[in-house]
Structure formats: C-alpha cells, structure tokens
Amino acid sequence: MPRHIRKGDQVIVTAGKDRGRIGTVLRVIPKDSKVVVQGINVKKRHMRPTQTNPQGGIIDKEMPLHWSNVSPAVDGKPSRVRFQTKDGKKVRVAVRGGGQIGQAL
C-alpha cells in the first residue's frame, strides 16, 4: 500500500478524541500502519529512573495513531492524496487544490 503520509508532513486528525487538531508527523511505523504526531494522542507514562532520565517520574508521551485516521492538511482542511508521475518521478498531489505534497519519492 502506498504511503500517503510521511515524516514532517502537516496532518489533521480525522477520527478519535483529537479530531480536527493539526500536527506534524514525527515518525511513521509502516509495519503497524501507524504514525506519531506531535502534540496529538498524548498519554501520561510512569518512567523509572534511567541514565537518560535520572529523575524518572511521570512524563507526557505522544502515542501512535493508525494512519487511516490522519490526512494531509491543505489550507487547514483534510485532503485525500493522489499519486502522479512528474518528470519521471512519483509525486504526491493533494486532491484539494491540486498542489504537490512534500518532495518527490
């Protein structure tokens, strides 16, 4: 299945408790078909002290969302993605507005 979402994309959440919020994709997990979006689906985690976090304690952490629940944001609204070839390269094009999303594949 082609990926319509990539790291660094501005996306809008289309389903769930954070529906309508916009954020930047921090990580894509293709094995599980999930994405992690900055500031979205934040949960509290109790962390034990480690070398990187010697204090430990309760931290806020972004948890993964299924990538079917997010869409690229074009002018603050969700848009579907169409794949086209331009100059011999496959590019992502927003259905809303017809503009290119991100860089070429």
How does this structure look, described?
With 105 residues, the protein is an all-beta fold. The two termini are 14 Å apart.
The helix tally amounts to 0
The low-confidence runs, each spanning 5 or more residues with pLDDT under 50, are: none
Largest sheet: 6 strands, antiparallel
SSE order, one letter for each helix or strand: EEEEEEEEEEE
Q: Which structural class is indicated by helix and strand composition?
A: mainly beta
Radius of gyration equals 16 Å
The end-to-end distance, rounded to whole angstroms, is: 14 Å
The helical percent reads: under 10%
Mean pLDDT: 90
Outline type: elongated
Strand content: over 45%
Spatial arrangement of strands, main beta sheet: 6-3-2-1-7-8
* Total E-strand runs: 11
Task: Give the tags.
105 residues, mainly beta, three-stranded antiparallel β-sheet, 11 strands, 0% helix
Concise account of the structure shown:
The chain is an all-beta fold and 105 residues long.
